[in-house]
Description:
This protein is α/β, with parallel strands linked by helices. The chain has helices spanning about 55-70, 85-95, 105-115, 200-205, 240-255; strands at about 5-15, 20-30, 45-50, 75-80, 100, 140, 150-160, 170-175, 190-195, 210-215, 225-230, 230-240, 260-265, 275-280. The two termini are about 30 Å apart.
Amino acid sequence: MGSIWELDFYSRPILDEKQKKVWEVLICESPLDITTQTHSLFRYAQYCSSTQVNSGWLRTALQEAIAAAEEPPIKIRFFRRQMNNMITKACQDVGIPAQPSRRTLVLNQWIQQRMTEVYPQEPGYQAGTNTSVRLEKPLPQRLPDALEGQQWTFVTLIASDFTEMPEWDIGFGEAFPLNLAQISPETRIPGILIFSPRALPLAGWMSGLELAFLKYDTSVTPRLLLETGATESWILANIKNLQTQSEAEGFEASKQKANGVHFIGVQSNPQAQSFAGFWLLQEVNLP
């Protein structure tokens, strides 16, 4: 499997000499497993004048980033839906698929770091002027019929347990180094295990989504949602009894204590020693 990149192309809280917003492209590599050394991940940054903001400029920046990297990525993730057309066009022009995704953990941290440490040092910095446009989310969808009816349960692992993850038998999945989430080895990491006789097809379907995070939602009726892509949401389970609701509340509380980190695993049955799918996830606030 090749590398995956994360990309943001947006205005920054900096004004140029003509009092126009300065734009910037940030590109970084996604960590794909628990052992990734984040300091070695590829990064590329370049400012852009507001008069040059178009897919052609972004295509050129991508070409420069590809030339500077050891290898081109197999896909590029981005989270800003309002930039969908421009980013998708630029990526198509360089022959790399673009994927709307909230799984941009390194990029999110990098943007926050630049907001506090880099942009304030730039001439023309304007504090508090970089509000992102919030677009309305679509309603949660039902799972495809072929994937419904499986059993599932809440479980917990200790963060240090994940050091053995490279040795686990996993069909589909993705992880990231836990030091990226700044949690201690003793932290309890909540998750769910899904059991299904069609575990491999289920895991394969999930691997085609950009898994973002799990969330216990009570806005309409108690239910467990699987958030994917930039905006998509799936009803993983309706939670009807009080005991399971209590467990779901505990899941959310543990997730908050673990800085949003949690996981989802797919197995054929509770006795299985392997995973058809396993994803380490983190719910974060996007810039």
